[in-house]
Design goal:
Bound molecules: adenosine-5'-diphosphate
Order of helices and strands: EHEHHHEHEHHHEH
Strand content: 5-15%
Number of helices: 9
Distance between the termini: 9 Å
């Protein structure tokens, strides 16, 4: 299996690059943000609870997202691999992901981090907010999401560094240029 953690701040291009990775490597896309937005759209209890948290730019509880990921992994364990987008977002989630995969005799192949400076992600997210009307793409919530990223999510880098799975790349450039950089990192492990 090729199991990729695609990592980076909000607005770093994880969703865009995920689409290209899925097309080329036939991976199953697991975006916790997308899964949560489907729960909101379906107005489930979980979705109603998650919406208030997401609208503030805070993190939904580890238990909820780990549960969602566990179900999706089990349902697709015979696939060629997974691309984890927006997950893990805390060190606890990273540990839980390894446990779920290990139970099935699988592991993360690599973590690719898209490095994009703050001013660039803010510009991109504001533009996305104008185009799509996504509730959390406005100035004050974006600032909060970046703070949450620095405090709670960036420590996940250390987790994968220790396991020698950390592959940072420059996230500035054209979509194709960045995809080529990701492919180079995949070639190193695959
Ligand atoms: P972005 O990367 O642009 O912030 P996402 O779609 O990945 O967008 O996430 C949107 C929101 O969904 C987050 O701000 C957070 O509230 C919630 N969320 C998504 N994934 C997770 C996760 N793994 N753990 C906790 N909360 C999450």
């Amino acid at each position: 299996m090729l199991n990729i953690v695609l990592f980076g701040p909000p607005g770093s291009g994880k969703g865009t690059q995920s689409e290209k990775l899925i097309a080329k490597y036939k991976l199953v896309h697991l975006s916790t943000g997308d899964l949560l937005r489907s729960e909101i759209a379906a107005m489930t209890d979980l979705g109603i609870k998650a919406k208030a948290i997401m609208d503030r730019g805070e993190l939904v509880s580890d238990d909820i997202v780990i549960g969602m990921i566990r179900n999706k992994i089990s349902a697709n364990i015979d696939s060629r691999g997974f691309i984890f987008d927006g997950f893990p977002r805390t060190v606890a989630q990273a540990g839980a992901l390894d446990e779920v995969l290990a139970e099935k005799g699988k592991e993360i192949s690599l973590m690719v981090t898209l490095e994009v400076p703050d001013d660039e992600v803010i510009t991109r997210l504001l533009k996305r907010g104008e185009q799509t009307g996504r509730a959390d793409d406005n100035v004050s919530v974006i600032e909060n999401r970046l703070n949450v990223y620095i405090c709670q999510t960036e420590p996940v880098i250390g987790y994968y560094k220790e396991k020698k799975k950390y592959h940072p790349i420059n996230g500035i450039g054209s979509v194709d240029e960045i995809f080529a950089r990701i492919e180079e990192e995949i070639k190193k492990v695959n």
